[in-house]
Amino acid sequence: MMNLPPDAAPEGSERLAASSCPDTTVQQISVLRQRSEFLKAARAPRQAMTGMVVQARKRGAGEPAETPIRVGYTCSKKVGNAVMRNRAKRRLREVARTVLPQLGQPGYDYVLIGRNGATTDRSFADLTNDLRTALRKLHP
């Protein structure tokens, strides 16, 4: 470990500091965690794509509006063992992180469901295109 003066930053940290600054134009995304939130989204319209299934539900007037977009991720045991399910969810999280701030609608809850074989084996570009296409179909 290097000893640096308190005001000195390590090499390359300028790039990290600049890229980690929050952008005010990017929408905040929070994660669905409660079963009741997933069940509400299960009754919403869904769009099946090759790499995933996307459910989109507009939140009601009495529901929390602290964040414009909320997203949840799920993979059943059909996807595979725990390693495969976790890999699929990690890929879905990254796809959502890149696509939802641009194409997600404020006030919506989204649930991304992994599919057997396709979510873990499909290329990242194809997964991204799947989510973009699904959002365009869900929000005409």
UniProtKB/TrEMBL annotation:
Enzyme Commission designation: 3.1.26.5
Tree of life domain: Bacteria
InterPro entries membership: Ribosomal_Su5_D2-typ_SF (IPR020568), Ribsml_uS5_D2-typ_fold_subgr (IPR014721), RNase_P (IPR000100), RNase_P_CS (IPR020539)
GO annotation terms (biological process): tRNA 5'-leader removal
Region (Disordered): 1-23
Pfam families: Ribonuclease_P
GO terms, molecular function: 3'-tRNA processing endoribonuclease activity; ribonuclease P activity; tRNA binding
Keyword tags: Endonuclease, Hydrolase, Nuclease, RNA-binding, tRNA processing
NCBIfam families associated with the record: rnpA
Name of the protein described by the UniProt record: Ribonuclease P protein component
The organism of origin for this protein: Pontivivens nitratireducens
Name of the encoding gene: rnpA
